[in-house]
Structures are given as structure tokens and as C-alpha cells.
Amino acid sequence: MHTLGPESTFNESMYFNLYDPANGLGAFFRLGNRPNEGTGEMTVCIYLPDGRVAFMFDRPAVTTNDAFDAGGMRFEVLEPFTNLHVAYSGKALVLTDPLQMSDPKAAFSSNPVVEARVDLAYEGLSPAFGGEPAEPHEAPGEEFARGHYEQLVSSSGTISLGSEAWDVSGFGLRDHSWGPRTWQAPWYYRWLTGNEGPSFGFMGSRIARRDGPGTRGGFVWEGADLVLCDDCRVETTWKGGDRYHAEVDLELRSGARTWKAHGTVRSLVPLRNRRKAPSGEVLVTRISEGLTEWDLGGGRKAFGLAEYLDQIVDGAPAGLAE
Predict the structure, then answer these.
(1) Secondary structure (3-state) at 49
(2) What is the rounded distance in angstroms from the CA atom of residue 147 to the CA atom of residue 2?
(3) Alpha carbon separation from 45 to 34, 237, 269 (Å, rounded)
(4) Taking Cα atoms as reference points, which of 134, 206, 130, 209 lies closest to residue 173?
């Protein structure tokens, strides 16, 4: 845990995702501490093999930055970058149609809630990518994560929902961020993760700013080498009147080397964040979480998450053109 900063929007968070190719179950878990606001952000999202999604979000009371332990969720670092533990005990909403989360009030009033239990061990596969730069890389008002790193991982354990239970053994990605954060800081971003197995995985990042070109990058893990990428190109096929991403073409570049993947979104959960601007205007940010199957070519497949964050402008996502 890092020293709590003076910023009102200081956030320290961890995130874990996974996909089990044997049973078709995917998930992600996030816990963020925002002690200077007196609250946290806790998210559970489990993509079930039959297409249902179990989901829960909470803003538990958080007044210190001593641990990741709130809202029924706990993250423990047993050995840094090597062994971590994720646990959750609490409620989960079970959605037959995950797109209902575009209206959370209606979704929570019309779907069943069950007891959920998560007990997962995570083990590091790749070296960590990222850290905290010596010089600030964010413009005032655009703070999202002063420090941030990511790591490909394996995961095993159990997940239960009501009377149903699954043994889980799969692969994914974890991250850890700290510093001031407002979800309205990026104009839009695309955060794309995938694992073929223990010896190949990737992360692609495209962050767009309101003014300026933004950033493109990521990494490719080849089992022995973590290759840093200097470019990330994303093309999106949108679906429906609300324009959710349905297919994603990703190209990562490192010097003269290129990796391509075509993603098909298997299941998508639209989430949102709202914050009142000093002007009184309510700013709406949409974070669409797509469980994605990646075609790497030559019969190779990878699985992961395609997370699209967009500011909503006149009812449409800001990044439609990309």
C-alpha cells in the first residue's frame, strides 16, 4: 500500500481478471480505496458458461489506506508478484441479459440476488509491466493513475453462486494503481487483455485525451520475454443503438515486430460512473466490460477482457470514430 496522498480523489486499487478455457467461465474483481472521500469502489463480475452474468457493485466505507479489505472483498499479497489471494463473500445479482446493467436501478429490481463466494489463488506468470514515473505524465485535471503496473497471471480456486459452484483453473491479468483518479479524466480508452495460456499473453492500451494525441502501447509476453510495445492500433465494430463493441481488431507493434488479434465479444456488461462537475453538470462515463475471445491466427485462441471507457456526449460514446 502507498502513502495516502492529499488529493481529494486519491485512489489505490487492484484488479484481477481470469478466464477458464475448460469450463468457459470468466470473471474480474476490483477493489479501490478512496479514503479522502470516505468510500471505496468494489466490483464483482462473473461471466457464467451459459451466458448469464453475476454482478455486484458497492461503495463501502473506507477511511484508511491500510489494506484492500472492504465490501466483502479482500485482496492479500502473500509473496509480491508471485502469490496473491482474492476472496469475496456477499451478494451477487444474476443477470440473464447482462445489457440490463445499462439501467442499474431496473436491473437490480428485476433480477434475482444470491449469495456469492469467491476463493482464488493467483500466481504471477510474466514480469510486471509499468510502475511510477520519475516525472508526472498526466496533465492537471486528467489524473487517472500516477503509478500503475500490470502482470499476467494464472488463477485457481472456487466460485459459488447460490446452489451452483465451479472449480476454476485459468489465466488472466492483474493490475495495481495509485494516485489521483477521476473516471472523467480520459476522453476514452481501450484496454485489451488476453492469454493463450501460461506462455503467451498481451495487453494493448489506447488512451485518448480531449486535447492531444493521447498514448498507445502495451506488451506481449512470449513465455521468456516481456516485449514492450510502442504502438497499439484498434478498430471496432459496434453493435446496437447504444453502440457497444462487438468485434475488435488489435495490432500491437514493437519496432519492426507486429502482433495481430481479432476479438469477438462473447458477453458484455455496461457500467457507468457519474460525477457532478463544478458547473453543476452531471458527467456520465460508460465502462463497457466485454469478455472476449481472441483469434491469433493459425488456429490459436486467447481469452480476456476488452474494456472500453467512453465519456458520453450527446448520448453517444466519445470514441466511436476509433
Answers:
(1) coil
(2) 10
(3) 21, 24, 9
(4) 130
Task: Provide the pLDDT for residue 204.
Answer: 98
Give the per-residue pLDDT at 275.
87
Pull the grid cell for residue 258: 507486429
C-alpha cell at 284: 456520465
Query: What is the structure's pLDDT at 146?
Result: 87
Q: Which helix (DSSP H) or strand (DSSP E) does residue 311 occupy?
A: strand 300-313
Query: Within 10 Å of residue 66's Cβ, how many Cβ atoms?
Result: 11
The fraction of the chain above a pLDDT of 70, given in percent, is: 98
- Amino acid identity of 96? T
Cα–Cα distance for residue pair 17/120, rounded to 1 Å:
11
Nearest alpha carbon to residue 204 among 259, 145, 247, 264 = 259
Element spanning 40, H or E: strand 39-47
**Residues of the chain with pLDDT > 90: what percent?**
90
**Cα distances (angstroms) measured from residue 50 to each of 119, 140, 224:** 21, 45, 35
Cell representation of residue 190? 481501450
- Answer whether residue 277 shows pLDDT above 90: no
Q: How confident is the model at residue 223 (pLDDT cuts 50, 70, 90)?
A: very high
What residues does 150 pair with on adjacent strands? 129, 175
